[in-house]
């Protein structure tokens, strides 16, 4: 079998798998995924039809498989089987108890169709991959179903009630929300939802939810899709300002640990010191506050604005110390 024929065969099999995994699949979606032309996709779809796969195609909608038609599961490769171990460990760490249990159940069914030697590989690897828990829990122990409840509400377009303590709240507040999506960033899950109390969209951090209750009440109105919401949250970015500092060689490793979070660009040796260059947007607050941790081992070379911000913070700290004394 030539390489081109094998590539086409593999692609057609992958197309069939995708058609079985979604109700409707658009031709452009397939073309983008496999990096081929629409004409190639149409030819592959024709091949599936000639092979007896009952496909339904609607102009402008996409393709779907006739209800009731399913092929036996496709065999997984050894590499794909080993990936199950890592994803299972990730689920244990980043999903709530209910969602993790549901995922484990689904994954068990997938593992059941693996070949015997692949099952042994997966079993032997389970104890070799360790995911350490976060110091601060992602979900409150008393609410083990935050994520699963939110996902179900999003799918069914039903309201949920939460007991939520925001960063400025003295006590937890009851909120009725209509969730449209979930975001994971900076180590936490955030439920993006329309809040009926605030009459606007808000993001609710998972570890601040003290209670969550599903309901059968449908959404009060049609909401924007998640991608449109995320686009609306983007603010005009400030221009990047080049900053340069020098640090002792002995202390440089401590700065390297977090420097990529602050626009790090490059470094070079300068005598007995290391010179680091950054391109950062916020040199008034965020960047100088981070540098303050290493103040006794660094020297700010440029720009003057960063030096001024650093001195201003240092003066404020000194004033606070003097007021204590």
Automatic annotation (TrEMBL):
The keyword Secreted does not apply. This is Helix-turn-helix transcriptional regulator. Keywords: Transcription, Transcription regulation. InterPro entries: CBASS_pafABC_assoc_protein, DeoR_HTH, HTH_11, PafC-like, WH-like_DNA-bd_sf, WH_DNA-bd_sf, WYL_dom. Residues 8-63 form the HTH deoR-type domain. The keyword Transcription regulation applies. Transmembrane segments: none annotated. Pfam families: HTH_11, WYL.
């Amino acid at each position: 079998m030539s390489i081109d024929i094998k590539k086409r065969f593999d692609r057609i099999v992958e197309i069939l798998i995708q058609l079985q995994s979604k109700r409707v699949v658009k031709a452009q979606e397939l073309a983008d995924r496999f990096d081929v032309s629409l004409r190639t996709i149409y030819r592959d779809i024709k091949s599936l039809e000639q092979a007896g796969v009952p496909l339904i195609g609607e102009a402008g909608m996409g393709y779907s498989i006739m209800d009731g038609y399913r092929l036996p599961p496709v065999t997984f490769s050894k590499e794909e089987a080993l990936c199950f171990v890592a994803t299972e460990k990730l689920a244990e760490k980043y999903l709530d108890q209910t969602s993790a249990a549901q995922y484990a159940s689904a994954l068990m069914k997938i593992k059941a169709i693996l070949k015997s030697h692949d099952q042994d590989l997966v079993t032997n690897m389970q104890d070799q991959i360790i995911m350490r828990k976060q110091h601060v829990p992602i979900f409150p122990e008393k609410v083990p179903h935050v994520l699963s409840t939110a996902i179900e509400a999003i799918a069914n377009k039903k309201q949920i009630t939460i007991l939520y303590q925001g960063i400025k709240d003295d006590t937890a507040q009851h909120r009725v929300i209509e969730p449209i999506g979930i975001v994971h960033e900076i180590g936490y899950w955030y439920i993006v939802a329309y809040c009926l109390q605030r009459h606007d969209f808000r993001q609710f951090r998972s570890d601040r939810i003290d209670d969550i209750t599903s309901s059968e009440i449908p959404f009060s109105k049609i909401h924007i899709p998640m991608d449109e919401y995320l686009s609306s949250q983007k603010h005009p970015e400030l221009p990047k300002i080049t900053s340069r500092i020098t640090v002792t060689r002995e202390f440089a490793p401590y700065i390297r640990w977090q420097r990529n979070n602050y626009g790090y660009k490059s470094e070079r040796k300068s005598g007995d010191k290391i010179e680091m260059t950054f391109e950062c947007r916020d040199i008034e607050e965020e960047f100088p506050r981070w540098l303050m941790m290493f103040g006794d081992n660094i020297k700010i070379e440029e720009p003057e604005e960063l030096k001024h911000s650093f001195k201003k913070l240092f003066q404020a700290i000194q004033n606070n110390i003097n007021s204590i004394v």
